[in-house]
Structures are given as structure tokens and as C-alpha cells.
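Justification of computing resources. Each target in the renewal requires a structure prediction run like the one illustrated here; the chain below, 121 residues long, is used simply to show the kind of job we budget for.
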Amino acid sequence: MVTFLIILLVIFCVALGLFVLIQNPKGGGLATGGAGSNMFGVQRTGDVLEKGTWILLTLIVVASLAITSISKSGSGVAGTGSKIDEQINKAATPPIIGGNAPAKSTTTPAATPKAGDSTKK
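Resulting C-alpha cells:
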């Protein structure tokens, strides 16, 4: 699902780039016809390209948010985690010296009550 959304995002980005490159800042982008072709003239071309630009921009934002939310929730990942996450978790846990049990100290200080401490009830 994430791969599909990434492919859609790339398509939207390429289309947005083409829409922006087609536009002419003077308003004469695709309109090469003279006064005889008023059906798709300069003004209508600018409106269509501007609306298309805003629609593609909105689709890019929606696709980006969808990719982010799916990848953060983990539902788009088939396995339990990536190999990078496994390496990080493996490096984060320190190895135990001397087997499975933690190393014990051979000298333990004796518990001595303090002079002002009364443990009688």
C-alpha cells in the first residue's frame, strides 16, 4: 500500500511540474490560437491550469499525509520490523557477562543499624 501511494505521489509531482512549466506568466501558456478560437483561449487556459495546479498540490499533500500515517502506524509494513530497527535494538541491549545471570558482587556490605535508628515496634 505504501509503495502504491509513493508511486502516486511521484506521478502527482511530475504532473505538477508539467503544469507549472506549461503556464506562461503573461497568460499565454497553451493558447496559440488567434481571436477565432475563443473556446479554449488564453483566459480559459489560465483558469484550467491554475485549478489543475491547486488540485495536484492538494493531492500531493493528501498522499504525503497518507504515506506518513500508514508508515507511522506500521500497518503498511509486512514484517515485524526492518533490519535497521533490529540492528539498533541489538546494539541497545548490553551483553550479559558470565552467562545468563547478571554478575554478582562477592563482597556485600553488612547492614548495620544507625545509632539513632530504632527498629523495635
